[in-house]
Amino acid sequence: MSDEWGVMSKLAQIGLTEGEGRVYLALVKSKVEMDAKEVSKASGIPYSKVYTILEKLASKSLITVRAGRPAVYSAKEVSDGLSDYKRLVAKELDGKFSEVELTLQDLQTTTDAEKPDIWIIKNTGDIIKKAYATVLNATKEVDVALPFMPEWASEELYNAFLRLRGNEIRLRLLLSSQVTIDKIEGVSKTVSVRTRDKMFGGGIIVDGNEAILFIASDGSNPIVAIWSNHAGLVQIAKAYFDNLWTSSTPINFDGKLPAHRKT
Q: Residues near 158 by Cβ (< 8 Å), separated by ≥ 6?
């Protein structure tokens, strides 16, 4: 009996339940075909449960089934049966490993996507698209600083600001004093505007957690920009904008130039 329980323990280690181990061991020891009633008697497994166990052993390729009335069962040659079962276990295990790998890769991809990112954009068209998309991501506030106002920018900014204003988003536009009033009068209806004499570059800051900085231009259009959601970089940009805004001049649209531009 002790040897039998030792074998049962080893069968359990390769994935057989106690019932499966008892039925399989009974078939191995019998060396002849048996029907379900005989298997039940030899293994001590209730007849009501033995069919289910026999089906599981057959699915594991450890035993063979010969159809008939009644069907009869026999253990495969031990080395053949265990080899077939081993291949099935290996295939199933390989599938589980593949599934886990895909799950973890998806998790890693999601985690990487949540990390701060920095993009360098070197094409004016791509910069404009990214700037527009960044502005429309806003849920609370948008700060825009422009050292110049390209011909296309006034209408584009007006449409974007009008849409955001409808969502009660705070909007601030900081411009160089060299920008003429006629280029920004329409925009001023949707956003607070201030100007200052000296501006070094420009950019857009959205909700204090996303920024696009214009770091080079051809005189009227940005040609190199940096977009980032890195907390430190965005905080620096935000603090710099707030400082410039505080020391800048509000524009009064009365048909005259701002006071600092009068001659």
A: 186, 187, 189, 190
> Between 153-165 and 124-136, two packed helices, what is the crossing angle to 10 degrees?
20
Specify the higher pLDDT residue, 256 or 194: 194
Asked if the structure places residue 96 within a domain, the reply is no
> Do 131 and 221 fall into the same domain?
yes
Q: Render pLDDT for 154-172 as a digit per residue (tens, 0 to 9).
A: 666 777 777 777 778 888 9
CA distance 216 to 246: 25
Locate tokens 């907390």: which residue? 231
Same domain, 133 and 78: no
pLDDT grade for 52, boundaries at 50, 70 and 90: very high
Residues 159 and 54 in one domain: no
**Phi/psi-derived region of residue 44, left when phi > 0, alpha when psi is between -120 and 50, beta in every other case:** left
In a domain, 18, yes or no: yes
Task: Give the range of the structural domain holding residue 66, as residue numbers without chain letter.
Answer: 2-85
